[in-house]
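Supplementary Methods, section 5.1.

A reviewer requested that the exact input to the structure prediction be made available. We therefore reproduce it here, unchanged from the version used in the analyses.
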Amino acid sequence: MRSMNRVTVVTGGAGFVGSHLVSLLVARGERVRVVERPGASVDHLPLSKVDVAFADIRNESAVREAIRDCGVVYHLAANPQLWTRPRGDFRKVNELGTIHVLRSALEAGATRVLHTSTESILTRSQQTTLIAEDQEVSSRDVIGPYCRSKFRAEHYALHLARSGSPVVIVNPTLPIGPGDRGRSPPTQMMLDFCLGKRSAYLDGELNLIDVRDVAAGMIAAIERARPGVRYLLGSENWSIRSVFSHLAKLTGLPEPRWRVPYHVALVAAYVSEFIADTITGRIPAATVTGVKLTRRRMHFDSSRSLAELNLTPRPVSDSIREAVAWFRACGWLQQAEKSFRQDNRIKHDQKNSGF
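The structure derived from this sequence is encoded token-by-token as follows.
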């Protein structure tokens, strides 16, 4: 049994998944310490009920101090985007940062450590079957600097677990739902559609899961998962087109009419990244890694992991609806919806006037 004076640590606890995880842990009566990067916004957390330590996970001594007296550690902190400048930051944050957190947690006497990996490192070229948690992937199959950094981080976690350390691993697919202040790639994709920025689409497959079910799955993994085994936290397989079709029904916006050929999208992504690298410094609308992943089979079968963790995710259609409601509550959609209503009014007036 965990010592009562030990604290549950959540790295990246102010992020999309992390903030939902923190809420669940607080509701369970656990003492929680959130470890976030210096300068991160934490105002949306229940600050009266959690401690916050600011530490750059690239700095091992800062990590060691932030997770002192830990009992359980949930390691979520990472750069989840598919582009960053410079690219070496992926390795420093996602790989070396993981090494610092996991090593410091074990040295501090943590009884259980969870490492958050990703589904994108489980894809292979020429995949024809659904992907399960026991998929074997070589480093040659891993696409882009983000995926490579997460691939190496998972290998370190697996090495610790298979050497006898109490480290468990979860691989969430794409989390969606309310509360994504950082606008991860699936949230940005849906938001762009709601803002009228998606008149075209790129063919691709996705596996989606509600962010709250990911958080619940992490707690279940701490309690039930076997070290050295990968647990796939996924729910429903969708296509990008089907997501847009569902959003169209929710919002009244038209579905995208044109399918963008893969090679056109890839060239556009290279151009977008070049502009982001040399001029804007902002995340590009299309990333090379993201476009290349659309060529992979990204449909998953999480049934074994979900059964072992006793987790039943909610319908993804509900999660998409709640995400759109949250966009609206944040004020992100008002101008786009106002313009849409004005356009419809003009079309109605023109039709009635005979033009």
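The chain has twelve helices and twelve strands. These observations are discussed further in the main text.
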